[in-house]
Design goal:
Elements: E1 2-7, E2 17-23, E3 30-31, E4 36-41, E5 46-50, E6 55-60, E7 67-69, E8 73-79, H1 82-88, H2 92-103, E9 131-132, E10 138-139, H3 141-150, H4 168-175, H5 227-240, E11 245-253, H6 255-266, H7 277-291, E12 297-302, E13 305-310, E14 316-318, E15 320-322, E16 325-327, E17 330-331, H8 339-354, E18 368-372, E19 391-395, E20 399-405, E21 408-422, H9 428-443
Parallel strand pairs: 14-18, 18-19
Antiparallel strand pairs: 1-8, 2-4, 2-7, 3-6, 4-5, 6-8, 9-10, 11-21, 12-13, 14-17, 15-16, 19-21, 20-21
Helix pairs in contact: 3-4, 7-8, 7-9
Length: 450
């Protein structure tokens, strides 16, 4: 027998650290190659870390919640020595037991990153099999965790899986509190909106009345800045203090967009696809970017000074509020997608982001971003540009308001679209034309048929 030490690997994101979120194994557990041993959170996403060894867990070296550098030892395994492994090959029964793991590939595979040695699957641990609770619900542990995170009672979820198993889509569908215009499911506000601050204790002798000790733990709380929050904060500071931001906005009659969304929802062609005004907004943005390409450009510092890179493709970013923080995954080459394929891409992006499983590659290379602040009931805002891009639009809530139509005041579905832009790349007239084009599509989506 021999002891193997496993260090935190470089997961291929160009990052240097990660947080150990949760351990899936404990000392004494038997694991096979590619069994998930822990969940780690990088600055980009939540990643399952598989075991590179088959054997018995020796010692867990890093506690949950701790952020460590790549290369730090995190766990040890007790494995067979080379002589013992050769001896086992002459044991038919043992060889048969080992055949499954050996056939699955020779290297650990990070979930979401593909396989390193042709592995197509990994042996499922007993803990990953569907389990039945006391109320008779069948669901895998990851689905139960998702339900807990979303505050969903599994007993109330309509199961569509085999043998009555609750699937990920079942939980997400049940958890959705969205109105017709909501795109990214976000955590609901807590039950308590305001907290009563306790009356200050009498000041200790020697302190002036009304001045409290700064060390009182009941009055403050320290939240470590790490993972997605740390990466997002750094990106926002970089963008805000390097690109001169200017914002323009326009109020829009989106009634015809709402009518189109209603028709698409009723169409058999979209029966299995979630449709929202964000889909029309995305199509409008892609159309408008083609008419004003500089909005899809970027400022690039070079050895000789700087240049403006104009992209003739659209990797459309969608800002997503997830339980672990703000991320901006993007749909690659969105300009090539028709209405139905774009809707499916938005659906996949939503579900993956909500679970914290967005791959790092899906968060890189964006060219333009949409943020839907309407999901929070906001009318408008001044969004910060995503680093590496020159523009971003914020879509406000869609609500019925009085609107003048043909000289008469009528109730209409109204929204506000705001656009921030890098004034080094785009002038005010260019961004104004772009926002006007987006508004034109939302007011009359039939313009998309060309």
């Amino acid at each position: 027998m021999s002891t193997q030490t496993f260090t935190l690997p470089d997961v291929g994101e160009g990052l240097t650290e990660a947080e150990i979120v949760s351990w899936k194994v404990a000392p004494g557990d038997t694991v096979a190659v590619n069994d998930v041993i822990c969940e780690i959170e990088t600055a980009k996403s939540l990643v399952e870390l598989p075991s590179p060894h088959a054997g018995v867990v020796g010692e867990v070296l890093v506690e949950e919640g701790k952020t460590i550098d790549v290369g730090t030892p995190i766990i040890t395994f007790v494995t067979e020595s080379a002589d013992a492994a050769r001896a086992s090959s002459s044991d038919p029964e043992r060889a048969k037991r080992d055949e499954g793991p050996a056939a699955e590939g020779g290297g650990a595979v990070l979930v979401g990153y593909g396989t390193g040695g042709g592995a197509t699957s990994r042996r499922r641990k007993p803990a990953e099999r569907p389990v039945r609770s006391s109320v008779g619900v069948i669901a895998k542990p990851p689905i139960r965790k998702l339900a807990r995170d979303l505050g969903v009672d599994l007993a109330s979820v309509a199961a569509t899986g085999a043998d009555g198993e609750v699937t990920r889509d079942d939980v997400m569908k049940h958890a959705s509190q969205a109105s017709v215009f909501r795109n990214i499911e976000t955590p609901e506000w807590g039950d308590v909106r305001e907290e009563v601050v306790p009356a200050p204790a009498p000041a200790p002798v020697g302190l002036a009345r009304g001045i409290q000790p700064v060390s009182d733990p009941a009055r403050t709380e320290a939240i470590p800045v790490k993972g997605v929050r740390k990466a997002s904060a750094n990106a926002m500071v970089q963008s805000a203090y390097s690109a001169p931001h200017v914002t323009v906005w326009k109020e829009i009659d989106a009634t015809r967009t709402m009518d189109l969304v209603k028709r698409l929802k009723a169409s058999p062609d979209f029966a299995d696809i979630k449709v929202s005004p964000l889909l029309i907004m995305a199509r409008a943005v892609i159309w408008a970017l083609r008419r004003t390409p500089m909005v899809n450009a970027a400022w690039v510092d070079t050895a000789d000074g700087a240049e403006i890179s104009v992209r003739h493709y659209v990797n459309l970013g969608i800002a997503a509020a997830t339980p672990r923080g703000l991320i901006v995954p993007n749909i690659k080459d969105a300009q090539t997608l028709g209405m139905k394929d774009l809707a499916r891409a938005l659906n996949r992006l939503t579900l993956t982001a909500r679970e914290g499983k967005t791959a790092p590659a899906d968060q890189q290379g964006g060219t333009f971003t949409i943020t839907n602040i309407g999901v929070f009931g906001m009318d408008a805002g001044t969004p910060i540009i995503n680093p590496g891009e020159a523009g971003i639009v914020a879509m406000g809530t869609i609500a019925q308001k009085p609107w003048v139509v043909d000289g008469e005041v009528r109730p209409r579905w109204v929204t506000t679209v705001a656009g921030s832009f890098d004034h080094r790349v785009i002038d005010g007239d260019g961004m104004s034309r772009f926002i006007a084009d987006v508004a034109a599509i939302l007011e009359e989506p039939a313009l998309l048929v060309d």
